[in-house]
Predict the 3D structure of the following.
Amino acid sequence: MEETDFCETDASVAQHGITKRQADIAHAMVRYGKRADEIIAQYGVTEEEFTEWVREGSFSEYASELARGFARADAPYIWSSLLDSAKEGNIQAIKLYFDIWNKMQAAKPKDSGVVAVDSEIDSIRAEIFGDD
């Protein structure tokens, strides 16, 4: 199979301290859902070479940064899908939504001890459960 070139610029690759080949492999690992051993075989990388990349650290840091970036980019689609499932009455989706909401609220700094109702949560509750 031919290597996938996802057009990472030379400057960006150099900034991260990795090669273009490493950047392409990291991209394939993050986006294509294949196991790492399948991807490195596809690109003709030995297990020893890959292990050295991981031990050195720059490759792993780049792959992690790339994964976080793609996760942030996918978040609106996932959130929308979760809300659609909740609106359709999926109890697990509704529970997950409120679990996430409660964790976000718990992470916010407490100031006066007064609980403020967020208009966004009220709107979402109305969408899911109606205006009752």
Remarks:
- The chain has a mean pLDDT of 84.
- The chain has seven helices and no strands.
